[in-house]
């Protein structure tokens, strides 16, 4: 097994761990995996999310991630300490009492500092059926 393969596996596991922490509303884990302020892009535009805003978003009772299934995962190490993870995701969430399913393409940029990886940027675009 090569170092790149091990690195790729580590980053895929971190991405999945992030989604699991979001489902569980695990603020401690999501904060450990996020480099604040984190740049986020999606259907609502572009944002720079600080720690307090992120915590409020995660705690929002009107928005809950119920499931996230990742597929077609691609990892591109840029340097030993920077990598990009892109994938398709099917997210089931409850928003304001209604269950919604979203198919999207996501991309996260991860940076390793002091031996720990954290997400510095995340983007999502809906895939139309």
The low-pLDDT segments are none
C-alpha geometry? globular
Reported CATH architecture: Roll
Contiguous helical run count: 3
The total number of structural domains is: 1
**Helix proportion of residues, in percent?**
25-40%
Percent in strands: over 45%
Order of helices and strands: HHEEHEEEE
Q: Which structural category do the helix and sheet elements fall into?
A: alpha+beta
In CATH, the topology is named Nuclear Transport Factor 2, Chain: A
Largest sheet geometry:
6 strands, mixed
The count of β-strands is 6
Query: In CATH's first tier, which class applies?
Result: Alpha Beta
Query: For the CA atoms, what is the radius of gyration?
Result: 14 Å
Note down, in words, how this protein is organized.
By secondary structure, this protein is α+β, with helices and mostly antiparallel strands. The chain starts with a helix and ends with a strand. The chain has a single domain (3-126), classed as Roll (Nuclear Transport Factor 2, Chain: A). It is built from three helices and six strands. The chain is globular.
Task: Compile the SSE list and pairings.
Blueprint: H1 3-23, H2 27-32, E1 34-42, E2 45-49, H3 51-59, E3 63-79, E4 82-95, E5 98-113, E6 116-126
Parallel strand pairs: 1-6
Antiparallel strand pairs: 1-2, 3-4, 4-5, 5-6
